[in-house]
Fold this sequence. Notes:
Chain A is an alpha+beta fold. Helix content of chain A is 49%, strand content 16%.
Amino acid sequence: MDLTATEEQRLLRESAERFVRTAYSPDARRKAAGQPDGFSRAVWAEFAELGWLALPLPDAHGGLGGGAVEVGILAEAFGSGLITEPYLSTVVLGAGLVADLGTEQQRATVLPEVAAGRSLLAFAHSERQARFDLADIATRAARDGADWVLDGTKIAVLDAPSADHLIVSARMAGDRRTPEGIALFVVPRQTAGLSLTPYDRLGGGRAASVKLDGVRVPDVVRLGGSDDALPAIERTVDRALAALCSEAVGMMAALLEATAAYTKTREQFGKPLAFNQAVRHRLADMASAVEEGRSMALRAALFADAPHPERIRAISGAKIKIGRGARFVAEQAVQLHGGMGVTEELEIGAYLKRVITFEALFGDVDHHLRRHALASGRLSSRAA
Amino acid sequence: MDFSFNAEERAFQQEVRDFIAANLTPDLKRAAALTPSVFYEPDISGPWHRALAAKGWVAPGWPVEAGGPTWTPAQRWIFETECAAAGTPGVSPMGVRMVGPVIIKFGTPEQKAFYLPRILSGEDYWCQGYSEPGSGSDLASLKTRAVRDGDEYVINGTKIWTTHAHYANRMFALVRTGDGGRKQDGISFILIDMKSPGITIRPIITIGGDHEVNQVFFDDVRVPVTNRIGEEGMGWTYGKYLLEFERGGGITSARLRKALGQVVTLAGSDEVGRPIEEASIATRISEIEVDIDALEMTELRIMSALQTGQNPGAVSSMLKLRNSEIKQAITKLGVDVIGYDALVWQPARPLYALNEPTPIAEDELPVVPEYLDGRAYTIFGGTSEVQRDIMAKLMLGL
């Protein structure tokens, strides 16, 4: 039992924090947000050079074989600087699915390109009627000779406008919510019949709704058979949730630091705000939320590859704890900054927006409370 | 980073389990489960204390020369976690956890030789004389006075919230021996024989119906000067050192998990109509469980830091605060789970000695008293308000 960081992990944290501090100013971020991609290709190239894109990919395909803990270390630093680069979409979700489900040939084609920063991916999975149910897929994949024809609509496809390939989930068989019969297809964004409605994402970055209208792809781009796609999706989304939780902890810590510093210098009624017990106690609770959040993000990372139900309880537990904690810290940060907290002139609001995004992604607190209770055997799916 | 225990630690875990299996009798286990108060009665904690003492395990925080077991932080974690999971009683903390470390750090060789073996064996039972009617969380405002008269102090005043004063044969107390510039100056740390003439004890019954705390009056009580720890007027320093142990007890998540497990069992039993199937109860259980997981991980992070010689930082107030809040959430859930059975009030104590049939199941009896007594968790050892002040100062530099 040792939860302290290894030497390599310490170095990774230092270099990620240094990068965010020195090369990722709020001005740079705002400038990147105005680009069509919603992020900076130059920064992405630096990520590749630093080895961060290869970090969690398997050794055999140009990766460094890191795990969820290492990704968490990066993600926490990313969160503290509100990084908008598509790390989650390309590396954690996209490459993660290919590494998990792909054939040797598919891995060899996709993963080294991702590691080198030459290929961007997006995960086109969520559908409007599904809300947060990962098994609820209405998009159809119909066999036509050697090809598959995809029809349906996906929403909230993060970073789709910049992606070279979309990883699209579609149903080969079964009813809308059947766990079996789902497959994934690696579809080039420029394929005929695939159209995007792009939008700016709350808190930075881009996303799109994706319409698939008779999109024809060869069988060779299919990931997995009919029974193993959903478990792989669940595993990969859980790893993404672990990364998102670490990212949110980075945001919470940044908000706490900024707010504590502000209350020390801002004077009202002839004394700093921090002299008031009502303010000090709020900050104490924020500090507690950050520490507990850090603990749960670490738990999520350590259990990210554990078997069911331990994995679900750790991941959903982190999403619950950090979902609540991040919202509390962000709202109190706005409150304690007073009128300035509700302006665009401070960065506080940018963090609040990203916190809302974090909460919505892959299930809010209520969703994960139900998932946690189900995994713990204390709730039947009927009652849920 | 490694979340599993190594072979040596797993072997120790087995040794602890074997010890518990051999020493935790069904009667003791039942009595512990039916204890709603914060501390265990001496007739429960005593046998457990003596079993641990015989094994050399009763004083985990003590150095080896004083009789400690030289456990690593991980071993200590394993021990506390296994005891909690098995439902053992807790050892009375006033001797082993509180005054013991102070005597070890600041006592004379004579004091160490006299008191420490008696704490280890359980021969002495200690109580803590800190709070006074006018001095709660503002401890340094205490007024109980010790006036020097030759080789003795003459003590007058009163202490309150004195846990188990009615069982204790010794008290460690903070008393005023002088009036310095700051209110923290002029306080001394004194060891008092509870059989001394001039001591009277008034029971205070808590809202949970338990006689756990008392008010103690001192009326010209004479105590030898040799019973003073360290220097006269330096008692605040020693007392603060002790509070570190009281607040940062450290490993509480396992006890919380056990307590939540008892509520889950109640919620799943036929007696209370299986409300666990209600989504609201199931998700409340999940919410508390997640809070416990977060506390446990924080404790493990601290343990790992200690194990590798790193400074865990100023976290003891946060641990105390969260433990107390989660404990109260569990007891509140318990009351909600038992529904109408919460209307049954059983005034007799101890609950484990009841010989008459009761209108509700035995394991429901402590639920309401536990909730009521448990309101004290956010008050004793420094209220939550005091803990938040300390956190603001030490964690954020405010």
